[in-house]
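Example 3.2
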Amino acid sequence: MTAIWKGKVIADSDQTIVIEGNHYFPPWTVNRDFLEHSDFTTICHWKGEAHYYNIIVDGEKNENAAWYYPEPMEKATNIKNYLAFWKGVKVE
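Structure, written as tokens:
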């Protein structure tokens, strides 16, 4: 699977984990040059607190377009620190 935004490969892996229709990419397969930490968080009742990154390509920012669970709840430990994408990021 490949995650692409604005023509740039943000992540690429054949080891994604699919949960609720989202591909979670292993952290070592993500190009962090395109990521900027965000202070935004959300709560999932069974995965825990999600933390977010902005994606920046050629000076254009896609706010909170990537998320991950640094301390997931017990049922989601298999995706600890794995990243998923939305907000126009193509995953195919």
